[in-house]
Structures are given as structure tokens and as C-alpha cells.
Backbone:
DNA sequence: TTAAATATTGATAACTATTACTGTTTTGGA
DNA sequence: TCCAAAACAGTAATAGTTATCAATATTTAA
């Protein structure tokens, strides 16, 4: 097993995620960090996002959108994913965690994580005027 | 809006999914259906999976694995995803649905779907002997 | 029953998110 | 300061999915 060494880039990725309340994709992390680290590599971003996830410092949200999203907030919470603008909102239903004890019996393995996603159209997108799908 | 026309392929994809208890990927659907329909196209499979999902006849499971999985069972239930073999198991915790009423208030939009995923290593994989990661 | 209209298909090219590779740089302990 | 290992930047390769398009199948109405 390889020992972990410090890296400025990894630290930046981690603090970047911890300071965001939205749930950026790898590409967003990359684009934003390039301002402070102009020659950070996209591969480095992906490599460290995976690593940080394995270490349990961040979590990966599979939204069904084409790209994965990342969340620096490890407090137990849920997500609402807008199927129109693809934004990921935080949701808090504390009661849901009391069920996890019951889940243990009904599940064919050892639970390491629990993700609960709500899907729908967010209020912002509902406000928007109706647009034609195909403009001539 | 275009009106839907019957298609033998779409019907086959739908009944295939309804008769499975596992949660195949698009590629698995494709490979299996090729036995009965030797020149069905992978594009056709993808196109109809998306369509059937929009119609609410099947649902798409984003497991965090590289490929999406599809589920023909629309009864409310949850999933356990093995992070080792990537199998998707059905889980039933009926109590979880009584919470959805409460969720409505805490969610920034209109809920159209709810997915709850447990992640961990399944009993099958826990049984397995430890294998070297790299065989020479 | 036939014909026109259009949705769907198969085949393939294009796209895009992610991973793998490689030579160079950085880190941390001796 | 020196060395081994980890991490990096840059880039190529992979894989899942979507788009394109000419040919085919389905539906409606004459």
C-alpha cells in the first residue's frame, strides 16, 4: 500500500469543494482552479477527486446527468436534481436516517454509503417562460 | 409533437426488461436481444430505453458505475449496489415512502421521482478469497 | 388495397466524460 | 543533500452514449 504524500493541488481541490454549496463537476473544478493554478491538469483533478472520495473526504453524486458531480459536504443529507437545468440542490430530511438501522437487515451486504435523490423540475425552471423546442 | 408508432424492437426491449429481476445495462439488453433479433442496432436499444423511461414504463438507475442500468420494475423500491461486482440488488423498505410526503415541503421543486441507493460490498463478494490486483 | 405521410430502424460516425500512459517534478525521510 | 516514491502536466486512448441519414415499417385515409 502506497503512503500518501502532500500535494498542493489535492489540497486546493479539497478546500475548493468544501467552500462550495453547489455540487460542481470535475470540469468545473478544473476550470475554476485554473485561475489560481494555471497549469493544473484535468487528469490531476480526476485523480484527486477519486482519491478524496476513497478517503471519505468528499462524495460523488451520480445524477443521471452525463457528468458526475462532487460534494464536499459530508453531513448526512439528500439531493434534489432538476431534470431541466441539472442543478443539484441540498435537501434535509433527518427522519430518513432513522430508517437506515432497519435497512441493515434488508440489504444483501455491508452498507458503506446511502444516497437519496429526488428528481423533478426546480422552482426556478418552473418560473421560466415556455420556449419552443425547435426554432426555425 | 410526434405521435408514437408501434415497433417490434421497442416491444421486445420492454418485455425483456419486465422479465428480468437484475438490472441490465444497455449493452446487456443489446447482446441478449440479438439472439432473437440478430440485426437490432445498439442505437435502437439506446433510443428506446430513453423513450420508455420518458414514458414512465422503465427507470434508469445511475449506479456511479461507468454504465447506466435499467429497471423494468416500477413498483416503489430501493437498490443496493455492490462496489466490487457492480451488481444491483433490489431492496424493500416500505417505511421510506411514508417520508416522501414530508419531503415535498423540503424540496425546491416538484418531485417526479425518488431514488434511494445503498452502496457497499455484497455478501457474495465478501465470501470471495482475496485476489491479487495485478497478475504477472 | 393502395398511397401518402411520417415514425422507426440499422449502420456508422461523432461526441464527450473519464482513464491510462509517460517523462518530469515534488515530496519527505535518511 | 540525496534518494525513492508519489504526484504532476500533457496528451493519447477508451468507452458509453448520442447524432446522422438513407432505407424500412407503420398508420391513416382515400
Residues:
Amino acid at each position: 500500500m502506497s503512503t500518501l504524500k502532500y500535494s498542493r493541488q489535492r489540497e486546493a481541490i479539497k478546500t475548493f469543494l468544501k467552500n462550495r454549496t453547489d455540487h460542481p463537476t470535475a470540469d468545473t473544478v478544473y476550470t475554476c482552479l485554473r485561475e489560481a493554478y494555471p497549469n493544473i491538469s484535468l487528469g490531476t483533478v480526476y485523480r484527486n477527486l477519486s482519491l478524496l472520495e476513497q478517503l471519505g473526504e468528499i462524495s460523488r453524486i451520480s445524477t443521471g446527468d452525463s457528468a458526475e458531480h462532487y460534494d464536499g459536504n459530508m453531513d448526512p443529507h439528500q439531493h434534489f436534481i432538476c431534470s431541466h437545468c441539472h442543478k443539484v440542490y441540498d435537501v434535509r430530511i433527518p427522519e430518513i436516517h432513522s430508517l437506515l438501522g432497519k435497512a441493515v437487515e434488508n440489504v444483501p451486504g455491508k452498507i458503506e454509503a446511502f444516497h437519496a435523490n429526488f428528481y423533478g423540475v426546480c422552482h426556478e425552471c418552473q418560473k421560466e417562460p415556455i420556449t419552443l423546442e425547435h426554432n426555425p
